[in-house]
User: Fold this.
Amino acid sequence: MPRESFIGQTLAGYTIRSEVGEGGTSAVFRAEHGSHGTVALKILREKLRNDRTAVTRFQREARFGERVVHPNVVRTIEMGEARAGLPFLAIEWAPGELLERYVKHNAPLPHAEVVAIIRQIADAVHAAHQAGIIHRDLKPDNVMYDPETQRVKLLDFGIATDTNAGADQRLTRAGFFVGTLMYVAPEALSGEMVTPQADQYSLATMAYFLLTGTLPYTAKTPREMFSQLLSQPPIPLNQAKAGLHFSPAIEQTVMRGLHKEPGKRFATVVAFADALQEVVAAGGAEPVASRGVRARLRALLRRVSDPFRRAAR
Assistant:
């Protein structure tokens, strides 16, 4: 069956210019609207439009987005049906690129930049927690990042959960977990309701990734990853990559956020970000490898003519 193409069409007043991303449940387009300007338009995949659970999750994402109002969370603009059976969600257009892509090309990041990113994500997630929402899918692929301004925007409440929801309102069956295995908290693997501490674990995993360019587990398959999460401690930060060395305080802070027992992590995601900011401020010199990466980048930029310098970044 040929794939749907919406490029050039106008749906519910939104003129679709290009496709910018796709996931398992929806495709994301850049679109223009007479009143809202440039937006990101999410359209549920054709094969899921008759799936009641998928449609409910899609609608719930919009409702959660409306509840979490924060400068570091993409703003929900509108949800509706472009035509019968074609649900859409219009959200704020966030400049920059996915954090995952940026980190893969630039890690390990400078400590100050890591703190700036983690601080903003923590504030956004804390706003969700204050609204009674646990994100459950924090990962670099769900964060837009603008390197020019170091501004962060949190995306995608598609599998978030309401802490006040009753068992009959939950869309995840007991015994099944949701999220991305590389970033999911160990306690979430049972499929039971998690607490905001699960988001803190995911945020600490992101901090580990930003600081080192690697993840705290080395599993090659989902089965192996599942087993390691349940039975093994994460790799200490100072053993993540040869040539990278962190102060004991930085390592202890990140590893505390990654503790298998939720009660031994920080009290909140904000407390984790506060602690990381404090130990980085007191931590002194950056790892040698990080300085070397930036030095090579500066040398490369000096060799490139001015018209191309922005593209080189």
Remarks:
- DSSP finds nine helices and eleven strands in the chain.
- The first strand starts at residue 10 and ends at 11.
